[in-house]
Amino acid sequence: GNTGIGLALICSVKGYPLEIVMPETMSIERRKIMTAHGAKITLTPGDKGMNGAEDYVKEIVEKNPDKYYYPNQFANENNPLAHYRYTAEEIINDTDGEIDVFVAGLGTSGTLMGVSKRLKEYNPNIKIIAVEPEPKQGIQGLKNLDTSYVPPILDQSRIDEKVYVNLKDAEHASRMLTLAEGLFTGISSGAAMHVAIETAKKMGSGTLVVLLPDGGEKYISHPIYSPDKCLECTKICKIKNLWTDEYIKSI
Description:
The chain contains nine helices and six strands; from the N terminus they run αβαβααβαββααβαα.
């Protein structure tokens, strides 16, 4: 995901050899971006998800401890620390501190842990909502804690509410963001946005911040943005779009 792409970029500049391990179900665009930066890609069985990728990495590192450095984003305290120092401060500054609810997806949990810690220090009344996929609903970038390894950096006491989202709703929200708002997002962003919209409906007033971590460029080959599905979204959401309006008339 984003960490792999970031590591590939840094390693290409520094001249470090990089091996990225990911499930074979991850989008082809992720692989192409990383290999473009010189990374070696190793794929693990898709049915084992990120758990299988983690297990494989631990196995090869244990066999060759002098060869590999394993950043382990799921256990690395620098992951939440970056969001504590920078992401959370940006949120506070950009909202003038007027925050009632923060919504973010749960993947490595680095974003949620870092941001929630800082926001709770700033105002303990800010509500933290974690977004998880429904069990056995694969959403790239997110974890369901009932079916996946629990990240060591996760402290569930910092989460006020968990909300589960299905793949269909996540994909629909992604298309809505792209077609109505011009935000070309990925599926994990759609999942967070779906929960944010449903939460905002219940709030009535106040300020809700939702973090969208995933861009749509990594899903070009995915059916999420197929013409038929985008057309369906414009109808459901009543989005005015010249091209789709003309297309509807033609059929």
